[in-house]
Design goal:
This protein is of the alpha/beta class. The protein is built from nine helices and seven strands. A seven-stranded parallel β-sheet has the order 3-2-1-4-5-6-7, with helices on both faces. Strand 2, helix 2 (about 50-65) and strand 3 form a beta-alpha-beta unit.
Length: about 280
């Protein structure tokens, strides 16, 4: 596990917590699961693919001695599957302290040609699934008097638009709005609801999108003020911070993890001029 200078001592309150992470067999979800388990949390691994879930659980339990990984396969776009994830998590660990709504899919298509079924599929996974899971977990937390933390993984495309991403942008903007509503409603119960908005992170999803030919690695590095992609562990540590008592007064927040992408409203030529001044 990478992670700069942040030490495990900063997250001692996460030891023994039960953390559900949807879409956690690869990318940001997997890196987040590794981090929480290394901090002593019990982690519920989820994916639609049962084989991927079983393999991830096996690898995590073998490679990281702290905490315990437990798997529940299920499609978060289906309410019954969400119920199964929550119920089996409770049966295994007896409580749920943290939910990370990470499961999501991308779609690049011209809006005029975007098929209704494809638009709906993206929203069902990225938005509906996050609401289903949040609602079910919150009910459980309220019933058991757990002062928990729910973290929704949105995107910088929940803050700005980008051509050919109508479905994805719709889902991620809506997820930020949902975050603020739930944070307001559930604060009296001690449940905090926040969102992170990753920029371009090196993940299998990005590899797939890059493969469409719509953009290149150089395009992203050139557009990002920090001049590089983000790494999954950088998102994972931010999620851990939001889940921990270190952020006990933070709710309804949206935290970009984007190397300055959203902060920069200029154009490529100007950014190149700025970067050239920083070169030795």
């Amino acid at each position: 596990m990478k992670g700069g200078g942040i030490g495990k001592m900063s997250f001692q309150d996460l030891k023994g917590k039960t953390v559900i992470i949807t879409g956690s067999t690869k990318g940001i979800g997997l890196e987040t699961a590794k981090l929480f388990k290394s901090l002593g949390s019990n982690v519920v691994i989820n994916s639609r693919n049962k084989g991927d879930v079983e393999n991830t659980v096996k690898v995590l339990n073998k490679s990281i001695e702290y905490g315990e990984a437990f798997g529940v396969a299920g499609d978060v776009s289906e309410y019954n599957d969400c119920q199964k994830i929550v119920e089996q998590s409770m049966e295994k660990f007896g409580k749920i302290d943290v939910l990370v709504n990470n499961a999501g899919i991308s779609l690049i298509a011209d809006s005029v040609e975007l098929r209704p079924q494809d638009y709906e599929k993206v929203l069902r996974i990225n938005l509906f699934g996050s609401f289903y899971m949040a609602q079910l977990v919150a009910k459980n937390m309220i019933k058991n008097k757990i002062k928990g933390s729910i973290i929704n993984v949105s995107s910088i495309l929940g803050l700005v638009g980008l051509p050919k991403r109508a479905a994805y942008v719709s889902s991620k903007f809506a997820l930020i709005g949902l975050t603020k509503v739930l944070a307001t409603e559930w604060a009296p119960f001690g449940i905090r609801v926040n969102a992170v908005a990753p920029g371009y992170i090196r993940t299998p999803m990005d590899v797939k999108d890059t493969g469409t030919g719509e953009y290149t690695t150089e395009d992203i590095e050139g557009r990002t003020p920090m001049g590089r992609y983000g790494e999954s562990y950088e998102v994972a540590y931010t999620i851990a911070f939001i889940a921990s008592d270190l952020s006990s007064y933070v709710t309804g927040a949206v935290i970009p993890i984007d190397g300055g992408w959203v902060a920069y409203g200029g154009w490529d030529k100007l950014l190149k001029q700025i970067k050239s001044k920083a070169k030795p």
